[in-house]
Structures are given as C-alpha cells and as structure tokens.
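Annex B. Sample input.
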Amino acid sequence: SRITIRLALKLLGDEGLIKRLHGSGTYVSNSFPASPVAPKVSDPRQLSRELVFQEWVPGPLARQFCPDLSTDDDAFHFKRQYSFQGKVLIWDRCFMSAKFADRLRPEDLLNEHFTAHWMRVQKFQIKTFTQTLEDVAASREDARILGVKPGETMTGSIEKFGTESEKVVGVFFN
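Annex B, continued. Sample output.
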C-alpha cells in the first residue's frame, strides 16, 4: 500500500540510505552512513578486554553445561568480553578441564595471544582444534551484554581444543 511504501522510504531516508528530493524523486545515496555498530577495529590491540566472571565447577555439573569436555574432572568456567570505544563487540564463555587450567591467573585469561599463552603456562600442546560457526538466536544474556534484541540472529562460534591424550580440554562459546 502507499502508506507502507511511504513509511519504508521515510525509514530509509532517516537512515541516510536514500535521498528524497521534493519534486525530483528518490535517489540511492552516494555514500552510506557509518554503521550503528562500533567502527571497524583495524588492530586487535585497540580492544579492551575484561574478565567478567570465573569459577570452578564440579565435574558432574560442568558436564551438564559443557558435555564436550573429555574428562570427569572439575572444570574452570569463565566469561570475558571485548569492547571497542565502550561498546561490547564480542563476549565468550569458556570451560576448561581442571588440569589444563589450574595454573592460569586472571591476567592470563586476558592475554592478547591467549591460546599460545595458555599452552605455555599449562605446559601442553594443542593437537586438535575445531570451530563451528552458525547463525544463532541471541539469548537474554547476549541481548544484555551486546545490546541486541533477544532472538535476533547473530553469528555464534564454538571452538574446541584437544590434546593427544584427551579429545577436548577446552570449549569456547563466542
């Protein structure tokens, strides 16, 4: 209907995607406005890192939250977030087998080169790595942290790290 078309054109104009010139017509803009998301990060060192949560979880409970861990040991669970210019861009929730996390300190969890640092501190080698990317619906926690609507589509990543002796010693949900 005309009302729907007018509303759509108004919204596109408000976002700077089109220009409406009275008596002349409607035109696609030559330049598009900056994204409402924080500007592109060209250097990862520009990100501020924050450890927002950490705890040791008893083995049986850890398996409920993260059944992919290969051990029945307790697990180390932590959450981090990465911000740029005050806006959280990425956050992750991590589970690690206790014997692959017992020497980690809070500052280690925020190391810019975390995986290499993790192997050095814990004295082990990662032998297997898988990453799964998929579109997921934002949870209430995602919505609160990232400022999106619950149920909004976003990209989720699950990274699994393993050793020669144990299939999965760390799982990262991003």
